[in-house]
Write a structure and sequence with these properties.
Elements lengths: L1 H38 L5
């Protein structure tokens, strides 16, 4: 039973780490889009 608890904890930790990473990347992307829209120029 303890093994299942440890496996569940590791899976939960991996999910949290993945969500944080994706959130950070999305935040960076939205900042780039915002900067492109506010400057009005062409963006890469």
């Amino acid at each position: 039973m303890i093994e299942y608890g440890l496996i569940a904890a590791l899976i939960a930790l991996a999910v949290v780490a993945t969500v944080v990473t994706i959130g950070t990347n999305l935040n960076t992307l939205f900042e780039k889009v915002k900067n492109c829209l506010t400057t009005g120029g062409t963006c890469p």
